[in-house]
Design goal:
single chain; two-stranded antiparallel ribbon; about 60% helix; about 0% strand
Length: about 180
């Protein structure tokens, strides 16, 4: 059974450590991507993405081309928006990623945050009903985090935990909606 990368429509047989890095490497091998490509890969209408740019949730594309960091931010927002308000998602990303228009204040880039999340959920044995397994998975995902600040690492672990719970809640809601529709 195929699965999709979180926040996208991109199917894969299974998620593995490093698979999102490989995916991004292929997508961005020739540079940035257009709005229509972002729309296709996220399932979002172009006007939604443009609205997020207009509202400052995502930085403006350069020459109508989106970077991997912008794409990752869009994907993260898309992944979490079913269960968290968009303002809260952006606040969450801002804690570790800073202002979307200024990469110099980032403790971690948006694409790296996404990769850490995919790496975390690709590990088996995580149960959202077991906080210890969630904490262990988040800590394991951040082992190579370049920032040596214990406070920054603690924030990143917390963000990954929030992402897991919110994304899981979104997936559970989708399943409940599908069951309801089948009644």
């Amino acid at each position: 059974m195929a699965t999709v990368f979180p926040g996208t429509t991109i199917e894969v047989s299974n998620l593995t450590r490093g698979s999102s890095r490989t995916l991004f490497g292929g997508i961005f091998a020739a540079g940035g991507i257009t709005l229509s490509q972002v729309s296709i890969m996220t399932g979002l209408e172009p006007y939604v993405i443009q609205n997020w740019v207009k509202r400052g949730f995502v930085s403006s594309p350069v020459k109508k081309v989106y970077s991997k960091e912008q794409f990752a931010r869009i994907v993260i927002i898309n992944m979490l928006r079913e269960t968290l308000h968009i303002e809260k998602i952006c606040e969450l990303i801002k804690i570790i990623g800073g202002d979307p228009r200024d990469v110099s204040d980032d403790l971690i880039k948006d694409d790296e945050l996404y990769h850490l999340y995919v790496d975390m959920i690709s590990e088996s044995g995580i149960s959202i009903n077991d906080e210890e397994s969630v904490m262990n998975a988040a800590q394991a995902a951040t082992l190579d985090f370049a920032n040596n600040s214990p406070a920054a690492k603690k924030q990143l672990v917390g963000i990954l935990r929030i992402m897991l719970y919110a994304h899981s809640a979104s997936e559970l809601k989708k399943t409940a909606d599908e069951i309801f529709s089948a009644l």
